[in-house]
Amino acid sequence: MEALKQELKENIIEQLNLEDMSVEDIANDDLLFGDGLALDSIDALELIVMLDKNYGIKLTDPKEGRAIFETINTMAAYITEHRSK
Amino acid sequence: MKKVYINSISSITPQKTFDNSEFLDEVIIHENQVIFAVEPKYKDYIPPAAARRMAKGIKMGVVASKLSLQEAGLEQVDAVITGTGMGCLRDSEKFLGAIINNNEQYLTPTSFIQSTHNTVGGQIALELQCKGYNFTYVHGSNSFESGLLDAKLQLELDEAQNILVGGVDELGDHTTKLNQIIHHVKEENISSLDVLSSKTKGAVFGEGASFFVLSNKKQASSYAEIISVKMYNTLAQNELSETALHFLKENSLKAEDIDAVVLGNNGDIEFDGYYNLLTSGIFSNTQQVCYKHLIGEFNTASPFGLWIASKILKTQTLPEVIKKNNIKTSSFKYILLYNMYRGENHSFTLLKSC
Amino acid sequence: MSKGVAITGMGAISAIGNNVAENFQSLVESKKGISKISKIDTIHKDDIMVGEIAYTNSELEEILGLSPGNNYSRTGLIGAIAAKEAIANSGITNINKYKTGLISATSVGGMDMTEQYYYNYLETDTNRRYIASHHAGDSTQKIAEQLGIAKSLVTTISTACSSAANAIMLGARLIKSGQLDRVIVGGSDCMSKFTINGFKTLMILSDTYSTPFDENRKGLNLGEAAAFLVLESDAVVKAENKNVLGYVKGYGNANDAFHQTASSDHGDGATLAMEKALKVAGYTAKDIDYINAHGTATGNNDLSEGRAIIRVFGEENVPEFSSTKAYIGHTLAAAGAIEAVYSILALQNNVIFPNLNFKTQMKEFNITPELKLKEKELKTVMSNSFGFGGNCSTVIFSKEP
Q: Who among A19, A20, A46 is closest to B108 (CB)?
């Protein structure tokens, strides 16, 4: 699980071009949207593709992403439960 | 009708032009057929959260607009008008490349969103929280001039008082390659100093962004008054001189009244004939100024011509490196700009000192 | 200075018709042109529905009488067809008799060809003639050539889905200010893999017929179209004794300055655009008889636009409104032009076109689009077009100057 969380942080920083950030800057329970990292709806779409491409999880409704992408913890838990690759 | 003034200028080009305290004091001699913009420190102007998705063209455009606002002493404008011939080329290439390379799978939205032609205009509006009029023109070498005309109409009729008008185009690797195989880009490397006397086909390709605050209120920083802008989708060589004279006549001027002509020569032997007609004909005794040898050719290179003309009128100086001939000129009052690309989309812009 | 901006001709090609008459017939018969995609090979073909123009490129080339070596993109081809219809409809025989310009709008330009030959260009020279027709201004130059417009003001606007509305706006201003006596305005956008995949990544494409202003709307159908209007000054109308189809009475463009793609929750930009257009027309909200809404059938647009309409008109006083995008799909940069043609057809025939596929009232407000073809004496029609980059435009058409 910790390895997955580390991987998610690295991928988020790279995929979303968070140039000034490093893995250490993101805590597992930091809010990714809103007050925390302040990601937006375009980032949410990027994360949906990441789920599909890296873990074989397909979301059809962007609204589903809200709860899943709340924090690194929620993402890792969802992926662990639903991943097909 | 109100008069229209250029109250501030800014230009990011393959020369170090973003510092307005200089006027081509230092010139970079490029040796390639594709030359890239000298970039300012974007971080000084764009917050990281906004910058993270921006390709070079968008960054150049946003920074140029900020520099221009700064110089005009404004925090807000009534309208933002942008010209771009090729749009956000890097993001277009990125998204299209991904579609083809990944067979339409695992595509992400960012480069698609950023590839829209009005991204720069939209980003400027977002950053300024400017809810006013926001247009983007995408018509080859008349992209910027279309915006100039639009802004001028609004200011003359006092529908707006301050308008940000600019042009931006960025180089994209694949598109450059395509322009090389059809010889729109020169085949050989060439020095900036030799471009204008080149005897080969094609141009040196460049990139850049320029923004201006146009206003119907003159202020201490004003550079010039814009008297007239006119565009022509087509123009045959044998109609050019007559059309130029007619344009001047509409503004109650003759060729002799013009103190300098700023021309868009790019060293393409196929098309420079247009400019040569003017320089060896009706403007043979006029001071001739060229600039594309320094920044390359791109659809919105012509606003750098406007930057130069504005500088000449305000400073009453003319750097050697952009002189095509040497005419003793005691003072610069009227400057005429003429530009076109590959025989299409011609424009005349007339400026007066103020 | 011309006071009025008269519309004296129009042309249109879309998924529901190859000319204005065919489009009108489909509109009154509630016949939509949405189907599975047939002309583009895409892996999404079973997940999306689109509005395609019936003609193939070679059929379009034949109609235009183009030689085999031409380098028209599909955007240029359909644009030329619609623009020529507009000129013929206006009865223009000598285009250069008056100062005539052309303002077109496009978002894809020549992308349809670029995406087919992107890498192939590097290998063989068979299709390289299309390299130079990629840029957005190329289709406009071609249309100008087809119309015989030379040595004149020709330009292209690209502000995403509000582009053609903005072309109409600029044209009207050029007539009013006396820069031009006559101007052909409109837009053209063909279907492309680029836009299909782009909208797919935004997850706003419906897998079935789009349902504008419906509570359960699932997103938009993409469409392709071209449409043009001939705008003429009072002086030309008088001198040529022109039949006037309607007038461009008001227009407004504003920026939402909220988000790159999404509209603000309460439609600030849309509200401003409608208010500006009313002001230019010298109207108040109650002067509007019908609204041809942007109504893309995305969750975001219809809520934001509906709220903006309520802000401008008051929830009790919203006139009949409908989105015609369920007929032809969202035709992007051409939408403002084809919907202008539909608005003028509505005015001419005193009829409001239905908002197809609607079933369930949206819960956020109480306004409901017009669901059946309705006859009503119309004096004015408002048309909305909103695009990426926060670009919001409204044009008002009227029967009287």
A: A46
Structure token pair of residue C181:
């006596």
pLDDT tens digits, residue range A7-45? Answer: 999 999 999 999 889 999 999 999 999 878 889 999 999
Instruction: Name which of B52, B107, B113 is nearest A17 (Cβ-Cβ).
Output: B52
Q: Could you give the angle at the alpha carbon of C109 between the alpha carbons of C104 and C113, nearest 5°? A: 145
Assess C225–B contact: CB distance below 8 Å, yes or no: no
Identify each DSSP E strand in C49-163 by its residue range: 50-51, 100-105, 154-157
Domain C6-239 belongs to what architecture? 3-Layer(aba) Sandwich (3.40)
Tell how far CA C286 is from the center of its chain: 25
So what's the pLDDT on residue A61?
Answer: 87
Q: Has C294 been annotated as catalytic?
A: yes
Q: Within the 279-318 window of chain C, which residues sit less than 8 Å (CB to CB) from chain B?
A: none
The ipTM is 0.98
- Given C134, C190, C330, C392, the catalytic residue: C330
* Catalytic-residue membership of C330: yes
Other C-beta atoms lying within 10 Å of the C-beta of residue C93: 8
Asked if the Cβ–Cβ distance from A46 to B109 is below 8 Å, we say yes
Residue C256 forms contact with B (CB below 8 Å): yes
- Summarize pLDDT for C90-126 with one digit per residue, the tens: 999 999 999 999 999 999 999 999 999 999 999 999 9
Confidence check: pLDDT of C1 > 70: no
C392 carries an active-site annotation: no
Cβ contact, residue pair C259, A48, below 8 Å = no
Each residue's pLDDT tens digit, C28-45: 999 999 999 999 999 999
CATH of region B227-353, choose from 3.30.160.250, 3.30.450.20, 3.40.47.10, 1.20.810.10: 3.40.47.10
Contact A45 C202 (CB under 8 A): yes
Q: Domain tally for chain A? A: 1
Q: Which residues of chain B have pLDDT under 50?
A: none
Q: Are B115 and B57 in contact (CB under 8 A)?
A: no
Average pLDDT over residues C358-385: 98
B5-215 CATH, one of 3.40.47.10, 3.30.70.260, 3.40.50.2300, 3.30.70.3180 = 3.40.47.10
CA distance C112 to B256: 49
